[in-house]
Amino acid sequence: MIAKETTKEATKEQMLEVKDLFVEYQTDLETIKAVNGVSFSLAKGETLGLVGETGAGKTTTALALMRLLPERTGKIKQGDILINGSSVLKSSDKELMRLRGETIAMIFQDPMTSLNPVLTIGDQISESISLHNSQGRTAEQIQLRVDEVLNMVGIPSARKGEYPHQFSGGMRQRVVIAIAMACEPDLLIADEPTTALDVTIQAQVLMMIRNLRDRLGMSLIMITHDLGIVAQTCDNVAVMYAGELVEVGSARDIFKAAHHHPYTDGLFGSIPKLRERVKRLKPISGLMPDPTRLPTGCYFSPRCPLCADICRERKPDVFAKDGHKIKCHLRINADGYIKDEVRS
């Protein structure tokens, strides 16, 4: 994903580059096409929001970035992933061990299943620090670092001897964040970190993630289906549908531009507006397509209210204007949008 091409943006060093990524889950009965030609990039210190419904391929994309796909069924069929210019797909197991946690870390979606129920939270945090102990910390220094990380996420260090079941959902999420942040990674992936939390705790967790990002100068990928979180957190946004990026741009493009992909319009139409009283919201009709039998042409065509014959027959090109990109046949005549030869 390429942000606005200003002189300032052009000078930013790229932390992550994803090039034409295809991911499939293969079983004896069928092949699930989870990610279909995704390309984007992320500069150091920037935040990218990856938005879409459940089943769009967001989590699979994140797992592919860290080479954490299921070994037997998950396959990266095509493309490349570069972190600081080095290919993740060509990295050895030893290099991957060093990469995960130290360079790139992930906050997983469900904190209860992410934590080991038979180990104290202190042991789980110290394990990460010990695996990446490039500074040669002693056992005592590792424990001091555990105390520091817990305090950083708002948990008293006196509780490091307790087990996950002794914490509330919000506190468990803070522990997961502490594990991810223990080695101060360059890139943090937050996979719907507030989904299972109440609104008050959501706000606290989001503020904490933003503060840690700013303090450590990290790059951040925020995976969510909540456009409100995107508005609060992200510099750039990528809208994902059926394993494809259908619209990308700066947060201002996504929220203020005159033209959008029909799917993005549908996402905005599903959000209640405090100042507008309506009898019913406008949900997107239909369901996400079956990833084992994706539609011919545009994957969104069966649900699109603006669908034309060409949408059912041929895959759309990408049209761009000042870095704002939309993958849709309807943008061919949009004011100022031209075909993006690189992404089409």
Please give the domain count.
2
Assign an overall shape: globular
CATH homologous superfamily designation of the largest domain: P-loop containing nucleotide triphosphate hydrolases
Query: Structural class of the helix and strand makeup?
Result: alpha/beta
What is the beta-strand fraction?
Answer: 15-25%
The topology string of helices and strands comes to: HEEEHEEHEHHHHEHEHEEHHHEEE
Second rung of CATH, namely the architecture of the largest domain: 3-Layer(aba) Sandwich
Classify the fold: give the CATH topology of the largest domain: Rossmann fold
User: What's the count of strands?
Assistant: 13
Number of helices: 12
- Helix content bin: 25-40%
Task: Work out the radius of gyration.
Answer: 21 Å
In order across it, which strands form the biggest sheet?
6-7-8-3-9-10-12-11-13
Stretches where pLDDT is under 50 for at least 5 consecutive residues are 1-10
Query: What is the terminal-to-terminal distance?
Result: 13 Å
Mean pLDDT: 88
Q: What does it look like?
A:
The chain is built from twelve helices and 13 strands. It is of the alpha/beta class and 344 residues long. The chain folds into two domains: 7-103 and 185-339, 3-Layer(aba) Sandwich (Rossmann fold), CATH 3.40.50.300; 104-184, no CATH class. 41% of the residues are buried. Mean pLDDT is 88; it is low at 1-10.
